[in-house]
Every structure is written in C-alpha cells, then in structure tokens.
Amino acid sequence: MLKSGINKPLRRSFIFGSCILQDKTVGETMRKAVFVLALFVVLFALVSCCGDSDPEFNLILDANDGSGTSSTIRISASDRKVPACPFTRDGYGLAVWNTKQDGSGTVYRKGDVIPSVDNYTLYAQWGIALKESTTEWTTATYALDRDVTISERVVISGDATLYLSEGYTLIASEGINVPGESSITIDGSGVLKAIGQNDAAIGGNEDERTGTIVINGGTINATTKNSYYGSYGAAIGSGRGGVSSGTILIHGGTVTAVIPEGSSGAGIGAGHLGFFENISISGGKVTARGGNSGTGIGGCESSGGNITISGGVVDAIGGGAASGIGGGAGSGGNINISGGIVSAIGGFSSAGIGGGQQGDGGTITISGGTVVAIGGDCETVGIGGGYKGSDGTLNLDGVSLKVSSDNLNWTDYDGSNRMVYMKTVDSIPIIPYQGSYLLLRRKNR
C-alpha cells in the first residue's frame, strides 16, 4: 500500500462536476458517482419532456379593413379557440374569420379550434350591417352589428348571404321571401327568428315558386302566426299552394321549424296544398313539426318530394293525417336515409316515415344511421304507407331490428321482418339503438 508522508493511507479523490467524492476504495467511489450521474440524467429528461407540456402559439387576427391594426394573441395548445373579435367597422358587422384575406380559405367562427401552428393568421370577413329598414337583399353579404327587428317582409333578389353575428339576434317579423331563381345562405353563430303566415317564414310566398335555402350555421327559429283565420305556409319552404320548386340544404346549425296548433303547413317543406321538390339534411340539429295535414319534413296535403338525410340529429313530428317524414296525407315521395340520428313520429293514420293518411310509402331507402319511426293511430306502420295506402317500395337491406326487454312492452315480429307490434298506444319511451332501426307500429290490424 502506498504511504503518505505522515505514514497514513492515501485516499483517492475523484471530481464529478463540482463535487469531490472520496472513499477508501475506487470501486465504491465509482458506484456513487454513477448513481449521481444517472440521477442527473433522469431529472434532465423529466424537465425536457414535461417542462413545456402546454406550449403557446401566436394567433394573428387581421382587421381586414376594420378599425385597428393586426392583433397578436398568445394562446396555449390546450385552448386553441378563436376569440371574440377585437375590431369594428362602420356600417358592417363581423361575418366570420377566414385564413385568406379574400375569404377563399378555411372559415372559422368564434369558439372554433385552430391548428397548433405558430403565427396562424385569420382575416376578419365583414358583411353589410342590417338595419330595421333593410327589406330588400341583393347579391351581397349581410351581417349584424346589433340586435335588429325588421317589421316588413324581406325580399331576396339574387344570391344573398346572411351571417348571424355572435351575440346578436335578427327578428324578421313577416318572414323572409326567397322567390324562385334566388337563394339565401345562412351561417354564423347568432340567432334568426322568422315568422310567416300564408307565406313561408323562410321561403316562398303564397302560390309562387320558391328558390334555394342553404343553412350552414346559426340558431334558426321559424314558425307561422297562430292567426284566428289560420296560417297555411311552411315554416321553412313554400307558401300556401306553392308550385313545384325549391331546394333546402341544411348542413349545420340548430334549426327549429314548428307550425302552431290550428294552422297548416309542413315544418320544413310544403305549405298547404303546395309541393316542395328537394330537401337535404347532412348536419346540425333539426327539429320540425307540422300543422294540420303537414309533415314535420315533406309535404302538406301533398307528396313528400325528394328527401335525403345523411347526417345530423333530426326530430320530425307530423300533424294530423301527415307523416313525420314524407307525405302530408299523400305519398311519401322519394326518401333516402344514409346517416344521422333520425326520429320520426306520424300524425293520425300516418306513417312515421312514408305516406300520410291516404298515401303510399313512396320509395324509401335506409342504408345507415340510427332511425326510430313510430306510426300514428289507426294501426299505421312506422315505415311505409298511411292507413289507406300501400307500403310502396321499401329498400331496407341490412336493416337490423332490435327489441328491448326493458321499459317497452313488445310482441313478436309480424312475419315480414320489418315491423314490430306494440300492445299499448300510451306514451312511449323511445330507446334508440346505434346502427339499428326500430320500426314501430301502434297495434295490430
């Protein structure tokens, strides 16, 4: 053993970082050093992976001709939502935001989630601010900069776009007329309340053609007046006696179209004795209720036209002698359901989906979604024809019937493998099944 000058064992010293470790043996010292080094590595890894678990990004808001300059907002990855607009513009209201200055890019509304991209830029898109006197709308973009009530009927000429600005409400006390060859596109996150009578709340006038109605967003409440003499227009669609025409496209938003008791007309579709050609629903939440002889969605004392449902949540209730979806006392028309969650309840003597009291089922194709269909009284089917009509052409390939053993009192299938009988006609708790179809009928014939 080596000896120091004072005849003592020589300790070996090892320096790690700023620490000097000494021990009697090199082996023990090395073990401690490795442990300390490993601890440093683990701590560094933890800091590296967890220290910035919720990174921040710059969101750039461009006023795009509005007041003020571009505003840079710091947002976190966990809260990447479009904020309220910090800009104003005289005579205009904010419509939406867009990733392109000219509005040709991706559209964003307040509360939408943006990508985790630094310096992501959104440009304000402006619309002409509506006033109480703005009753003639042309091919232009309109928006709100405050709550507005228009007491005269609005008339569209051309292709108008209405953006319902966040936090504001537009009341059209006499409704919005969309005559043939014209169109209106409704979007945004505000509220529209429209009221009709013999003219549709949103759509055609009495005995006239109807143009195209597109709903992409917003909260839409459409109804008709509960007049002493009655009302006969649809909530959204054609007026009383409206001739063959019209297209309704619902892609989003919350849409409520209800005809009051004592009045006639479809919730969405035809006015009394009218006809509506094309109705398509691909998204949003849609609630539609018809009046006397009016469907929730479809005809009114007429066939259902062409009805397509591929998405969204749809609740449709028919009035007396009218189906939930399809014909109002007449044939169901052409009905195609490929997606969404659909609930349809028929009125007296009418199918849930298909024909009204005296109509056949038309052509009904169901290939997807979740569908609950309940026929009205007088032994009518959930899907098919009305009380006095045939079932028509039913394309239900791949439809799966499920029977609940809880809450509902069921009997057996009727042999056609498409209808289920119920023993009662009292209030029915509806239990939808994902990916299946409950084709219900009130009682056996």
Task: Return the domain count.
Answer: 3
> Strand pairing plus helix content: what structural class?
mainly beta
Please, how many helices?
Answer: 1
Taking pLDDT < 50 over at least 5 consecutive residues as the criterion, the unreliable ranges are 1-23, 401-437, 440-445
* Shape assignment: flat
- Overall residue-averaged pLDDT value: 82
**What would you report as the Rg, rounded to the nearest angstrom?**
32 Å
Residues in β-strands, percent:
35-45%
Concise overview:
The chain is mainly beta and 445 residues long. It contains one helix and 39 strands.
What does this structure look like?
With 445 residues, the chain is mainly β. The chain has 3 domains: 39 residues, no CATH class; 68 residues, no CATH class; 312 residues. 6% of the residues lie in helices and 37% in strands. It is built from 1 helix and 39 strands. It has a 15-stranded mixed sheet that branches. A 12-stranded mixed sheet has the order 10-13-16-19-22-25-28-31-34-39-38-37, with no helix packed on it. A hairpin with an 8-residue loop joins strand 5 and strand 6. It is flat and about 95 Å long. It starts with 11 loop residues before the first strand and ends with a strand.
Write the layout of secondary structure elements.
Blueprint: E1 12-16, E2 19-23, H1 26-50, E3 56-62, E4 71-76, E5 92-98, E6 107-108, E7 120-129, E8 136-137, E9 141-143, E10 148-150, E11 154-156, E12 159-164, E13 169-172, E14 176-177, E15 183-188, E16 191-196, E17 202-203, E18 212-215, E19 219-224, E20 236-237, E21 245-250, E22 254-258, E23 268-269, E24 276-281, E25 285-289, E26 297-298, E27 306-309, E28 313-317, E29 325-326, E30 334-337, E31 341-345, E32 353-354, E33 363-366, E34 370-374, E35 383-384, E36 393-395, E37 410-413, E38 420-422, E39 437-441
